[in-house]
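tmp note - ABC transporter substrate-binding protein
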Amino acid sequence: MMLRLSLATEDYDRVRAIADRIVNVQGVELETLALEPEELFFRMSRYQDIDIAEFSLSSYTLSVSRGESPFIALPVFLSRVFRHGNILVNRDAGIDHPEKLKGKRIGVPEYQMTAPVWERAILEHEYGVEPGSIEWVTGGQEQPGREERIPWKPPTGISIEPARSGKSLTEMLLEGELDGMLCARLPSAFDKGDPRIQRLFPDFKSVEKQYYEKTGLFPIMHTMVMRKDLYNEHPWLAPELVKAFQKAKEIAEKNLFEMAALKTMLPWLVAEAEEEREFFQGNLWPYGVEENRKTLEAFLQYHYEQGLSERLVEVDELFAPNTVEQSAI
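out:
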């Protein structure tokens, strides 16, 4: 008898083969949902109303460190992004170098979000700007009233205050009440070309490539999780899911290099894909624990340093045991 389960992710090219039933999970009939991360992570944190879902690596790590996670993760990393390009400043704040962020008021939707964990780590470890040297303001990026999805207590020496009532972080940044913002999603005003919001690193692609060449880190944002009770009852499901996601990713990667009929509306996508395949030495977007151990260890260290984890979590604690090692033929 087939298991009937729900699966939710953002609408990525690397999961489309699963959503379109081109790739199936053995023994499972999946009801797939495409949800934006903010809604998906909120629902999973509060209600666990989906069986298998994309989830914030930071929120998951925080709950694992407390020994209270209702999930277990799979080494499938649907979202990974270099984040230098998401460090924004107000044009009139006079911030043209990371060191000038010291003493400034910087907005962040949630302090414990994965993207700001990486952004703060970059500022601290690459430029000497420690989190304690900044005044942090949290709140909704586009709509006022957002709160941390997982309650936590800031460590000593970190100044965090809520955004002014009725104000979004984007409004505060535009009006000069904030000097900058660390974010995952770029503000709508920035997308529309409002000149009051600028990137701290205008040539962010070059800076991010230099960061990778120096550190070997391609930041991971999200992992896949399944309800722990589901895993305990059907442990075979975890490696079957990993295999399906791997197959779907391989299909998406193959499409990047298709020239007979371009799969996207980017005329030189194939040229860019070939350049990036060479830059990453043939492994554009790795899944698996060992392939990502260095990046995961760095993230777990940053998470602990920033006072988010209650203890230093080990990489292998995060994932279903039967997905950590893979068979070979």
